[in-house]
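Bug #77: duplicate submission created two jobs. Keeping one. Sequence:
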Amino acid sequence: MLSGNCVNGRVTAPAQDLPETPVEVAWYHWLWVWFAALVLRLWLATLRVHANVPRIEDKDGPFVLLLWHDRLFTSSLIANRFLDRPVTALISTSKDGGWLVAFFKHMGIKAVRGSSSKRGAAALMSLTRAVRGGDHAGVTPDGPKGPRREFKAGAVSLAKLTGRPFLIMGMNFRSAWTLRSWDQFALPKPFSRVDVTFEVIPCPARESDEPALAAHLEARLNELSGA
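Kept job's structure:
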């Protein structure tokens, strides 16, 4: 099993940015979102998942979870199978983000709305509160609009604020369809194999070089996530 813990000094949060109201999904759309979530559960149930550990030991505290945006399809499966603590994910304020919030709720994942460019500071503080409350924070550091697999430093700021370590979630799809989207979103084919590699990275020191750490995390995510 993998585990991690650390204690860090206080870090000053960035100044509050101008708020933007997140787009929400109307209540009458939730029925078909529920149906889509059911289809996804059936699809995910066919996948043959192989991980480098049988379970993540998280009783000592939550992690800042890192995965690339193109690997989001299996994120709920991996979180529910390998983690005991709930997950709060960072999701964009866009209309697409509104659908994803509704979808993730059916899959058992909570959400905070924001991105590096919109509601960034507010989202960071909401995620910080979620982590201090015991939830893992799920972050796609290249989201919500890319560039693909380019690590933005917000996750490093979150780790500094909370004093919590990173948990890299590398997912390698042996056989998948790739969409023509900015992130080349991958859909593992039913009954195919998914290799998952978890790696704990200690939380950064207050004086750590954020760009250098972001570059290191980007390299590790790429090495563990397949093409």
